[in-house]
Amino acid sequence: MSSSTKAVRTEAGRGAEGAAIRLEGAAARRGPRRIWSGVDLRIGQGEFVAVLGPNGAGKSTLLDVVLGLLPLSEGGASVLGAPPGAARGGIGYLPQRRSFDAATRIRGRELVRLGLDGARWGFPLPPRLSAAARRANRRVEEMIELVGASAYAARPIGELSGGEQQRLLIAQALVREPRLLLLDEPLDSLDLPNQAAVAGLVERICESQGVTVLLVAHDVNPILPYLDRVVYFAEGRGIEGAPREVIDGATLSRLYGAPVEVLEASDGRLVVVGTPEPPAHQDCHHAEAEGEGR
């Protein structure tokens, strides 16, 4: 998508209808530890937004706040025009990457269907006996097609590649028609071609479905061409803005309170120099390293 088209999408999403996510003077704590404070965010409807920062800075804490799992210790928040938690029915959530054993026999199509009725007891009625079952099947097939997984949706999930599994998991998160999609490191452990493919898929979902996407990432480069905005956490603070405005030496130096330099390689990739773990080159899994300060 061109930069001008993205600008139009961003302007429309942040217009009169209101933001998908708003934080004002927000602070979050886990037990006695303050994770971040003084955070002001406005994420527009239909925007593709990356959440960046070093391990322990509070990237996944933001997701917990949006989901209503962690109350703010200060300030206010609204999600889809309601208090966090009240809007959970309008949110699709893909947690940090799961690992499927090669022997896992559930098929891709069945995995996506769990997004609709995985919390229910018993088995759904056959489609020939239930209009609701027919509608559910149509929705599942639509999402499988949307993510480009039709060719392998009938295969056991354990036989699929990491990129194929991730597409089906995104379809599962989309099948309930969410207005907001939260993705916690969906590119983790994928090779570079699959990272680029999934990033492009997410951008197309924003455009075609009008879904707001909040994606936690360690490496900004695979998604940089597709992003509308960036939220960056460091040193107990958070800032948001256009990618090139935030991932900038002067901006990051102010955030970290120390000299930071942003270099651009000949292929357009960004390298951040001077931070403990620059977002372009972090390779620790934050579930292991961030602990309670995710």
Cα radius of gyration in angstroms: 19 Å
Question: How much strand content do the residues show?
Answer: 15-25%
Count the beta strands.
11
Helix content: 25-40%
Count of the domains = 1
Strand ordering within the main sheet: 5-6-7-3-8-9
Q: What global shape is seen?
A: globular
List keywords for this structure.
294 residues; alpha/beta; Rossmann fold; three-stranded antiparallel β-sheet; 9 helices; 23% strand; globular; disordered C terminus
Describe this structure in words.
This protein has 294 residues and is an alpha/beta fold. It has one domain (3-293): Rossmann fold (3-Layer(aba) Sandwich), CATH 3.40.50.300. The chain is 32% helix and 23% strand. The protein has 9 helices and 11 strands. The strands form 3 sheets. A 6-stranded mixed beta sheet has the order 5-6-7-3-8-9, sandwiched between helices. The protein has a 3-stranded antiparallel beta sheet with strand order 2-1-4. Strand 10 and strand 11 (270-273) form a beta hairpin. Helix 3 (108-117) crosses helix 4 and helix 4 packs across helix 5. 43% of the residues are buried.
